[in-house]
Amino acid sequence: MRFSSASREKFRSTGNPVMAQDGDVQYERVAEIGGGAYGTVYKARDTESGKFVALKSVRVHTDHEGLPLSTVREVAVLRRLEQFDHPNIVKLMDVCASLRTEQETKVTLVFEHVDQDLKTYLEKAPPPGLPTHRVRDLMHQLLCGLSFLHSHLVLHRDLKPENILVTSRGQVKLADFGLARIYSCTMALTPVVVTLWYRSPEVLLGSSYGTPVDLWSTGCIFAEMFMRKPLFCGESEADQLTKIFSVIGLPSQEEWPNDVTLSRENFSPHNPQPITDHVPELTNEGADLLMKLLTFDPLRRISALSALEHAFC
Amino acid sequence: MTNVDIQNLWERHAARRTYPHLARTRVCRNLFGPVDHEELGCEMQRRLQEISERDQTRWNFNFEDNVPLPGNYEWEEISVSAVPSFYKESVRNGKARTGNAKDAAESNMETGCKNEAQSSFQAPTSSVEVNQENRSGALNAQELVTPVCRRRSGNPEPSRQNTTHITDFFPKRKRSLDTKQTERSSSSIPAEVTPRKRIRCRWEDLGVSHFSDHLAVKKKRPQRNKRSERRVRPSECHRIHLQMSLCVLMGVLGAPKSSV
């Protein structure tokens, strides 16, 4: 996976765009990748405060009009949110843009450095898994961050353990939101398969969506905190939906959205199963919250703010 | 504003000969006299240089070449496997914006993003938004949603008296342009393609002629109230929305791109 993207990068070199013919494959030379070797990240310690920062660079293709307006907007949203200094949002210290070539601008985001994400945190957890009180704390912080984003009309849209950072003190910090458009474009560009495991049914079905998508992802992550493995591991959109329906049951025709091309008849009928069959560690309150998060109808799915008031949290 | 005199027209033609690349890409009104593009470009470069020097000093890091410099911050280059994958470098293709959304999910993403950005910046298009998220406004109706959204979601079909639609301006504006055109045609000056016409040409080239159909429907049957009968598919909604945003943008910037 890493190899394929690294090999692709080798075809990028400095200078004007030249089409290099290599058999049947054509590569467009875009620009040299960052000075450092591919696959490294710069991290620094502030000698005054002792705090760590890390750089995340985003290479943006530009035309004669300069940076795309959408990128400028996204950065503006990130900076605006930063002013609130929310404890559960990763700190953005600075945004630096540098013109690399005529066709490319490098936008470097200076973030606070957190050394692990929820994925590694769960992998490191000793065998019986996280105790319920720890899960409760993580969930509470996650929902706090999410309700903050939602109250500012920002959707995360790609919530997954990889972009939920957990500090050494156990503080949860959401990362990677607001730049969603950058990643939606990246999907088509990189050979890396984008995970579908945390995607909500309405997104998988191509229906209209809003903030409830993040609550679905939260539900999947909540289950994963107990299971220490993903709840629904689909290999394709259809497979992901099948796996979801095998647990929550096939929704009724009335619940099925009108604006989708995929019909309900494509899926075999399933009755909802008790969620504790899949996540036996769940308490009664936990099971109730999980079912409210994994509700098919986005309008009936619990909101971040209501979830914070749930008996489990 | 549409009263462009002969001298101006000639000036514009001259400008096009001087800057052929501009002539092909832009239509603009010369409101503030001639612009020294070279000087402007230099000024921009100088400002950018100043900004990046400031960044470089603040972080003692050369962002252009990705090289750490001596200073307060002790930089180290570490493997991506040692940090959360979130810090990994990513690529954004600006061209992807203009491409047609491949599937519904992708177009959804775009709309979603647009909505976020627009609601946060209170873009002037808010009164004419027909995008997806508006259609199903309840989806985003959280407890803390701003009153603007509440109003929009609660009243998806605002009455024409209260809200001015951008489309209201179209037939009127077109007529005035048409009359101007006939007045002008008597003179010896070559007929110029008006900006509005260019826009329309471009849309039709892009295969989005249904937008003008949409306008035509409104123009011909203004008394028709049951607009909900005309079911607009989500992808169309999205496209119409995009086009309307374009109109507003062009109204603000006054510089549409001509067809390629």
UniProtKB/TrEMBL annotation, chain A:
One of its GO terms (molecular function) is cyclin-dependent protein serine/threonine kinase activity. It is an enzyme of class 2 (transferase). Residues 27-313 form the Protein kinase domain. It catalyses: L-threonyl-[protein] + ATP = O-phospho-L-threonyl-[protein] + ADP + H(+); L-seryl-[protein] + ATP = O-phospho-L-seryl-[protein] + ADP + H(+). Keywords: ATP-binding, Cell cycle, Cell division, Cytoplasm, Kinase, Nucleotide-binding, Phosphoprotein, Serine/threonine-protein kinase, Transferase. PROSITE patterns: PROTEIN_KINASE_ATP, PROTEIN_KINASE_DOM, PROTEIN_KINASE_ST. Its EC number is 2.7.11.22. Gene3D superfamilies: Phosphorylase Kinase, domain 1, Transferase(Phosphotransferase) domain 1. Its main location: cytoplasm. It is found in: Cytoplasm. InterPro entries: CDK, Kinase-like_dom_sf, Prot_kinase_dom, Protein_kinase_ATP_BS, Ser/Thr_kinase_AS. It comes from the Eukaryota. GO terms for biological process: cell division; G1/S transition of mitotic cell cycle; regulation of G2/M transition of mitotic cell cycle; regulation of gene expression; signal transduction. The keyword NADP does not apply. One of its GO terms (cellular component) is nucleus. ATP binds at residue 56. Belongs to the protein kinase superfamily. CMGC Ser/Thr protein kinase family. CDC2/CDKX subfamily. This is Cyclin-dependent kinase 4.
Automatic annotation (TrEMBL), chain B:
Belongs to the CDI family. Residues 30-77 form the Cyclin-dependent kinase inhibitor domain. This is Cyclin-dependent kinase inhibitor 1C. Residues 116-139, 156-166 have a biased composition (Polar residues). One of its GO terms (cellular component) is nucleus. Potent tight-binding inhibitor of several G1 cyclin/CDK complexes (cyclin E-CDK2, cyclin D2-CDK4, and cyclin A-CDK2) and, to lesser extent, of the mitotic cyclin B-CDC2. Negative regulator of cell proliferation. May play a role in maintenance of the non-proliferative state throughout life. The lineage of its organism: Eukaryota, Metazoa, Chordata, Craniata, Vertebrata. One of its GO terms (biological process) is negative regulation of DNA-templated transcription. It is found in: Nucleus. It comes from Silurus meridionalis (Southern catfish). One of its GO terms (molecular function) is cyclin-dependent protein serine/threonine kinase inhibitor activity. Residues 217-230 have a biased composition (Basic residues). Residues 98-194, 215-235 are annotated as: Disordered. It comes from the Eukaryota.
